[in-house]
Amino acid sequence: MEKVERRLMEPIADLGMGKTHQAVNRFFQRFSSRLQLFFLHKGLVYVLIGFLLGRAIILSEVLPFALPFFGAVFLMKRDKAHLAGLALIAGGITVSIEVSIIITMSIIGFFIIKRLSSYFLKDQLKTLPFVILTTVATVRIGYLFMTNSTLTIYDYMMAGVESGLSFILTLIFLQSIPLISARRYKQTLKIEEIICIMILLASVMTGLVGVTYQNLQAEHIFSRYMVLLFAFIGGSSIGSTVGVVTGLILSLANVGNLYHMSLLAFSGLLGGLLREGQKLGTAIGLLIGTVLISLYGQGSADLMTTLLESMIAILLFLITPKAITGRLAKHIPGTNEYTQEQQQYVRKIRDVTAHRVDQFSQVFHALSESFATFYDKDEADDDQRETDLFLSSITESTCQHCFKKEKCWVDNFDTTYDYMERIMHETKQHTYQNNVKLKKDFHRHCSKANKVEETIEEEINYFQANQKLKKEVQESRRLVAEQLLGVSHVMEDLSKEIKREQENHFVQEEQIRDALQNFGIEIVNVDIYSLEQGNVDIEMSIPFCNGHGECEKIIAPMLSDILEESIIVKNEECANYPNGYCHVSFGSAKKFRIKTGVAHAAKGGGLVSGDSYSMIDLGVGKFAVAISDGMGNGVRAHFESNETIKLLQKILQSGIEEKVAIKTINSILSLRTTDEIFSTLDLAIVDLQDGNSKFLKIGSTPSFVKRGDKIIKIQASNLPMGIIDEFDVDVVGERLKAGDLLIMMSDGIFEGPRHVENYDLWMKRKIGEIKTVDPQEVADLIMEEVIRTRSGKIEDDMTVVVSAIEHNTPKWASIPVTKYESKKIG
């Protein structure tokens, strides 16, 4: 009872924890979205960055950050420019009145020079860096001239340094500000963009110089926190890069921070290398880097202060929510989060594509149903309506002006209608002239009987032509419905293929690797894409095999034994040098294979034959053999038969069912030309997995299957293609076995022998007398026998295709593996 209660309580506990976790996630998402909205849309992020950049001074007197930031904000977010300007001035006041005056003068000068430059240059984006360079140089020299009456070379040099840095920082801020301020920006960040963001953040942290508490400096804490964050997210390369950039800019702000560049770079490298240990590993990397660089740079005097700063940075790093690190990681190439985001994007594109294909499939299916439902009518009502329309046209031309119209069609409507209907049916069947009684009664009833009979006989021909035309239209619609349905099925299958994801086969990959390594074969990599019976797809990388054929001789037989089905090498790319790797693809072997032989001759020994043939690999474990005989001989007959074969090949390979494919070809051939040029088609489709075969014969001669001493005749009765618009395809099924010979031929072979009354018996006897099983030899012998009966003359186009059905036995026998002998992988 306690076990049952425990089992019942566990799901309840899990459910409660799950709800709590979801509630926390929802709260954090709402809080982060509101915080983001508050900072970005209200412009507080520009106030914060502007305030710190207003305090940022490098080389003790250079202010290169303020005006580039203001200019970039003014160009991109003009409505927030006033907040950024006031924040810069406020930040400068916290340093000194002189700094705030310089910033104010720079902003005013920026507006003046920008206004002047707008008369000559229209592209604001390209002119902004030059405007800022000119403004900074002018304001710096002007301020120095106002405060000092004489200027030295050093003053001009520092003005040039400040304006040059401002020019470069303007270009950097133009790239980095949109990446930080945008709520949703592009998913992938380049290394250059990451460096631009880090320069901006390091510049902002420069504004923290001088903010201390008991010798703990704020810029040290936040710079190490940033290095920890990026080393944990992006690894050693990103961590060391961020450390170098941040340390360099901070060292420019305070020469005493020069050793911190080494500390941050080394800590970023170690933290990235140890990130496999999660946050704790990255934090240990920072501690090791702090101790080593501090002892080397400053000795043990300030070691405790430096360690305390690192510990505070580690504490901030440890309390950073995983959602923040995960969101940042989505934008840095090489991270798992970035890969998952890309896969999710690809999956979304795939789902959208599959959905579109599904929609097209449904459209074609709906169109097919609309064409098909056209025929779902009551035939009796249709016939009655046709009869009424026919009789109304008769009465309009005969009874309309008759003086007895009222008597016939008002007083005796049923009798008159019955007479007219019976006469119509009798005339259709050509029996009215022999029906003396009906004729006599009608003459007694109608005063214009002769005229009515003549009119009915004339209208019957138009009526029958109209009926035939309607029937042809209906059959065309039915064919279109079948074609649309076939296309719908093909697109539905395509959608399923798109939706099907690659399955993970980690366990099976390990089992295969262990089995092969226990046998002594070294495997570098195993990738399993499919373990479906009959559709196995495995790829391997193995060391250089020196052309000894290990894959075909050893690995493929072992995989056959492990997977309990025949596996063969589909593709092999051997390495060109001893230290390389060979890449091999393995796949399922078909149970049967087909070997074909063809004998072909044109009428009179010419070069152009009216017969065409093809062996088609349909790509789904099926193999097709087709012969088409164009009507007559020569170029036109060859064109017709060749077009039939090409159309058949394209349509079958698209996945459309055989019957629909043949009806489609028939409609194309019948509509393409008005000439009486037709073609036959003899098609055999063999399933290479089970041997089941379909034979579709359209006006073609019989085929024969030789199974030992037994000869099986395969025959169906269909008219040639293109001769009529409506026909039903008879499909004959036969299960072929290994060792069978399938013999298909055109009428030039079957009806070729002279002085033969029964072609079937003659062909069966000749096939039975052939002792060889080689398909090419069989085809040549049959052709030779037929030509011999004609005294060496070729009086018609002749084609015979012989297919031998064989077991598809791998070249090398399976090697049993004892460990996995009784256990199939999967």
From TrEMBL:
Bilayer-spanning residue ranges: 44-67, 87-113, 125-145, 165-182, 194-213, 225-250, 257-274
A Pfam family this chain is assigned to: SpoIIE
EC number in record: 3.1.3.16
UniProt domain PPM-type phosphatase: residue ranges: 595-805
Entry's Gene Ontology molecular function annotations: protein serine/threonine phosphatase activity
InterPro entries: Bact_Sigma-Reg, PPM-type-like_dom_sf, PPM-type_phosphatase-like_dom, SpoII_E, SpoIIE_N
Keyword Membrane: yes
Keywords assigned by UniProt, alphabetized: Hydrolase, Membrane, Transmembrane, Transmembrane helix
Cross-referenced PANTHER family: STAGE II SPORULATION PROTEIN E (PTHR43156:SF2), STAGE II SPORULATION PROTEIN E-RELATED (PTHR43156)
Protein name as it appears in the record: Stage II sporulation protein E
Organism: Metabacillus rhizolycopersici
